[in-house]
Amino acid sequence: MAEAIESRSLEYTPTWVVAVVCSIMVLISLLAERGLHHLGKMLKRKGQDALYEALQKLQEELMLLGFISLLLTVSQRMISKICIPTHLANYMLPCKLKEATPSTTEHLNFSYGRHLLSEDPGVQICAHKGKVPLVSLEGLHQLHIFIFVLAVVHVIFCATTMVLGVAKIKEWKRWEDSLKVPEGQARTSHFHLPHLPHHHHQHHLHHTQFFTQQRLIGHYRKLPVLRWIVSFFKQFYGSVTKADYIALRSGFIKEHCPGNPNFDFYKYMLRTLEYDFKRIVGISWYLWLFVVIFLLLNISGWYTYFWLSFLPLILLLLVGAHLEHIITRLARDVVEKSEEAVKPSDDHFWCNSPKVIIYLIHFILFQNSFEIGFFFWVWTTYGFDSCVMEKVGYIVTKLVLG
Prior knowledge:
Structural class: mainly alpha
Number of strands: 2
Distance between the termini: 50 Å
Number of helices: 17
Strand content: under 5%
Order of helices and strands: HHHEHHEHHHHHHHHHHHH
């Protein structure tokens, strides 16, 4: 009688329970949908089109995850009834099977079998065939939760990165304000002179010279290997100085809008950040492929979960060093070509394309959020002492690297 009560279907569930549960789920979903809708209207009203497009992409990702969730829910019983031989179910396990005495094993199998037979019809069907289910209902449910946790953590990581990026760029606001040309001089420069006023031109020239001296001082900077080493360590402190900002700003203005000395380079950087954020907020197909490969290689004794945590750190340091090296190469070009301003060029990037850096940043963000999300999922699902977590030393190292 007790088992019959515990396993009631909707046919024997009070209508008020069904109505209350449905009302709560619908209310939460409507609040989330309305919140995203009003956030989109606010972004459109403020003219932040790039952030609005990022929000639209986020909604598309949520819809995809909702479809995956629905697909898992609808097909879970059908999947659990797919049977495979017992020996195949013991290959490539995340945790080693525990050895036990025959009496203990017989008791555990009997009690565990009764529990599964009462809840998972796939176990009973496969048991009659002398096989085991491809995936149990419990396993599908846990996979369901993992996908949800991964999506939530990735969105939080992307949003945090955006906030930190804006906070970093805001430090450059005072540098931008100090470079503004008075309105009368700017108008005269625009209509009568091909270049900036003399004193302002000398001011920019002085900063460009200071920029090149700061980046190329010392004979050791002439060696490519040493330039890379210096760029590697430069990313940890003062990655973009005032001299760097002024030199890059003047070079950009001279290249793209020489007639507008008051071009707001700071606002342009903010818009660029928003545009790039739109490209990294989603979960692309190759990122899902990475998840599948990790789940395939997460085998007991391989410590894949630990070694994988070094990948985003290594890529992050390489990207940071590469961007610092690009600034140094721009300074070197100014000296070698005797130019008065920095000349931007895509040729300095890997594969002559800045998009490579965007793809790497996208992968780093996702991989790091995947690591942290996987940790929280295992912790809440199996506990901190789960064999999936591996040793405590590995866990601490992973979290520190993350």
